[in-house]
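Researcher: Next sequence.
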Amino acid sequence: MRVALLQLNTIVGDLAGNKDLIACAVRRAPKFDLAVTSELALPGYPPCDLLLNEEFVQQSWQALGALAEELTDLPPVLVGLAEPNPAGRGRLPFNSAALIRGGRVEDTFQKSTLTGSDLYREERYFQPGDEPGILQIGGMHFGILIGEALTGHKEKSSAAGFSLLPSLKEKGAEAIINISASPFTAGGQLRRQEQLSDLAGRCRLPLLYINQVGGNDDLIFDGRSCFFDSKGKLAARGSGFEEDILLVDLDRPGGRIAGDDLTPEAEIWRGLVLGTRDYVRKCGFFRALLGLSGGIDSALVAAIAASALGPENVLGVIMPSPYTSQRSIDDAIALADGLRIERITIPITAIMDSYERELADHFLGRPKDVTEENIQARIRSNILMALSNKYGSILLATGNRSELSVGYCTIYGDMAGGLAVISDLPKGMVYRMAEWLNTTTGRSVIPPSIIDKPPSAELRPGQTDQDSLPPYPVLDEILKRYIDEHQSRADLLAAGFDEAVVDQVISLIGKAQFKRLQAPPGLKVIDSSFGRGWRMPVACRTGRSGAVREGRGGIERRGDGGAGSRSRK
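Model: Next structure:
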């Protein structure tokens, strides 16, 4: 019994394109008895509110029929899609796997236990279906499972995962097929393999796991479809972060185990390159631009963009102000030339002067403060957006997670853009990624001068980030504990963090929520990300009071102070 696992990069909503992609893969696959796609492969995953459009669901079913006719002469294929609900109009569809054979839809298997993860609320889109069923192919009985029932999002498999396999075994299953669409997170593959291995070994059933690959909006899918034998041993694994067809022969032990680098930096780099490439191209762009400040964040984003899109498709824009050091200008030039991306320089001093003249009467008697710093950031964003419009290029935002967490960024300034490439990376990881990249390539992709200098927005003379924020190692650790691990203020104090620092960081996280809601989508690479997995109120007073205004660190409460707003030049 030979099963082909079709690990494909689909586009959400592109029914015709996805149908052709599946058909092409089926025809390219080595000789097989059954081919299998990932979850919801035909409509693309995640289709979100497209599933509330009954016409789209019907068109998806029609595309399945066309696919069946096209593959009449080939062995059966199990295809993931949304199945129309026969109960009538207004009823939610099923999350199904449909078996096509002999030019028609022969059978369907519906997902019975819907998941309510922080990423995808399935009960909003699907009707629970029948209990997991058995598919018989060539005398072999497969138990069919859909989605992340076996792996889930946490450290351990769900209780349901441990109960589903014995139930299917009792029904006669001799092997398990799990069609899934499991988003990438750093370190997630090791957890996934441990969970699947444990389940296969405990239930003494071979287990085939098929995952999709590619980027869809903020989610990245790493592929790495795999097969575990009845002892729980990894017997085959597909490639990571690229399309693949993994052929599994259930009658012969062993198989192809694609090489992989599971270190965090390597995984994140491949994920961000894939996610950037797919987001840009699936949104209809071919070129990207970004501001180059000579700092570490824009340097890493430029390197990712050059790898994802090709250096010939990336433009770096250097926009020095009176406060920009010559070293930063030189570093930005060296970075762009080393990456072989196009660069242009547009000084903003004259534009800043024009703002100062026009606003002089209105600002009379008021000292310079964060207002003038924000103006610089917004001048730069206006220039970048003008170039984006004129050239038809997507603007990449360059802020990191540490800054976004505490609002150390300028709304309508350095936050402007179509994609925030590294918004899920803590500042410390940005530095580790830069050093890893240089070590891995054997050359200074990111100039050491950029890595070595203290981080600064250079929006006023002598400014450094640590004038306003705790040292990044301290800040990143507090953010990890408070946001990712949901530790309380008391937990942080018990861990030995300074009380004033803890209170400052917690306050800034809350004040910056309104900024995060207006940020461009960011690529998810860790478990607890802002965006669809983070739901916090903006108009909220948990331990805060007083009037609010946009300013330092996001919403500034008069008298509270906060972190200085900043931008990327």
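Model: Confidence is low (pLDDT under 50) at residues 153-159, 543-569. The CA atoms of residues 273 and 357 lie 43 Å apart.
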